[in-house]
């Protein structure tokens, strides 16, 4: 499957990019038979990619004893949603209240503005995915559930469209939702601000917030959105040593 657009600048050196391309080729031309491929995916995990998985493993442990849904703001191919579903299957396979909800246009960035600066080299439409990609992702998330208990109860939702409209609509339709984990990964200012404003009254002591681009000079909009909504002075913004960019805070 080919991405439509990505656009953002990549900080890897040319040697790293070359090595990554060889890695991708080896994956595309894998000699591993179909019935062994899923159980051997670790073969293709580089330190960088594994570090993100480990980050979310640590984050999931923090929410196991809290109540509420997981919301991801910015889904793209859905790797994090799928990971969350797998972790739910490991840590709390019977927790039907731990719904996993993902918001995305599935058509790339929408609403990029001056507060996002110029460095990211992006525009509306960057980070788009294939037409109808949500159907593919829905299949993956259904299979994740099928391989765990209570699979007859669907415990995920994909909400397609501009977050500025879809997030308020979703929570209007689901007034019962409180948030144990919110993952902010729209990258850009306007939808991030909208998400933070709606999420704020649904947080409680123990809710975990994850930010993918805080303090990131390529995507300044996320930091500005946080400062204009929840603010940072009362947040203990932390990270784990294995990842550089992604950070989190537990509401105290
Ligand atoms: C960096 S990607 C998310 C990556 C994903 N969290 C992951 O773990 O791989 C950012 C996503 O935000 C989405 N996005 C940007 N602006 C949006 C908006 N106004 N409404 C909904 N989604 C938006 C884009 O479509 C894109 O898929």
Molecular structure report:
- With 252 residues, the chain is α/β, with parallel strands linked by helices.
- The chain folds into two domains: 1-44, no CATH class; 47-250, Rossmann fold (3-Layer(aba) Sandwich), CATH 3.40.50.
- It contains eight helices and six strands, in the order αααβαβαβαβαβαβ.
- Strands 3-2-1-4-5-6 form a six-stranded mixed beta sheet, sandwiched between helices.
- The structure holds S-adenosylmethionine.
- S-adenosylmethionine (SAM) binds at residues 72, 74-77, 79-80, 103-105, 108-111, 127, 162-163, 185-188, 191.
- Residues 72, 74-77, 79-80, 103-105, 108-111, 127, 162-163, 185-188, 191 line the site of S-adenosylmethionine (SAM).
Keywords:
6 strands, alpha/beta, 8 helices, binds S-adenosylmethionine, 2 domains, six-stranded mixed beta sheet, Rossmann fold, 252 residues
Describe the protein's topology.
Layout: H1 14-28, H2 34-37, H3 47-63, E1 69-73, H4 79-91, E2 100-104, H5 133-146, E3 156-160, H6 163-173, E4 179-184, H7 189-199, E5 208-211, H8 221-228, E6 247-250
Helix pairs in contact: 3-4, 4-5, 6-7, 7-8
Bound molecules: S-adenosylmethionine (SAM).
């Amino acid at each position: 499957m080919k991405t439509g657009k990505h656009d953002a600048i990549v900080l890897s050196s040319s040697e790293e990019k070359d090595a990554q391309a060889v890695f991708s080729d080896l994956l595309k031309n894998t000699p591993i038979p179909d019935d062994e491929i899923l159980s051997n995916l670790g073969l293709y995990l580089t330190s960088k990619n594994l570090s993100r998985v480990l980050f979310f493993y640590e984050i999931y442990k923090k929410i196991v004893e809290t109540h509420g849904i997981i919301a991801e703001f910015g889904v793209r191919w859905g790797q994090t949603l799928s990971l969350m579903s797998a972790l739910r299957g490991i840590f709390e396979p019977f927790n039907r209240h731990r719904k996993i909800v993902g918001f995305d246009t599935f058509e790339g960035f929408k609403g990029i503005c001056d507060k996002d600066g110029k460095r990211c080299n992006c525009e509306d439409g960057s980070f788009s995915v294939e037409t109808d990609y949500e159907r593919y992702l829905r299949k993956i998330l259904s299979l994740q559930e099928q391989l765990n208990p209570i699979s007859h109860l669907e415990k995920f939702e994909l909400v397609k469209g501009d977050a500025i409209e879809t997030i308020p609509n979703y929570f209007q339709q689901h007034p019962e939702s409180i948030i144990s984990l919110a993952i902010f990964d729209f990258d850009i200012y306007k939808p991030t601000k909208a998400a933070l404003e709606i999420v704020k009254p649904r947080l409680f002591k123990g809710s975990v917030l994850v930010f993918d681009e805080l303090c990131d000079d390529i995507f300044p909009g996320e930091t500005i959105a946080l400062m204009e909504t929840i603010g940072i002075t009362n947040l203990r913004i932390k990270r784990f040593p294995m990842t550089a960019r992604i950070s989190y805070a537990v509401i105290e």
